[in-house]
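ARCHIVE CARD
Drawer: 12
Card no.: 0347
Subject: one protein chain, sequence and derived structure
Cross-reference: see card 0346
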Amino acid sequence: MMIPARMILTQKQLDEFDAHPMYGGVTELRYLCPSEDCKDYPADNTHRSLTVRKDGVFQCFRCGMKGKLRDGVHAVPLMKRATRVAVRRSVRDVMS
């Protein structure tokens, strides 16, 4: 498999290709990869191989495409952590 060169990609393009990314931890989002090398894979949660860190660096762990988002990243992953902590606290309060 040929590893593609760095690609110019924007957050807007990613959102148009995959409007519902998954959280890959507190500081990452996981998307379906828009690369031609990944187009034959199903569009489901198990095939979200493109990881975008909060600093805008992205990499597909299937085809090897990597680079940095041209227009920055949403702040959603940081909000997700706060939500997750709040849910844990409320569950802990109910259980105790």
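Annotation on reverse: The longest strand covers residues 28-31. DSSP finds two helices and five strands in the chain.
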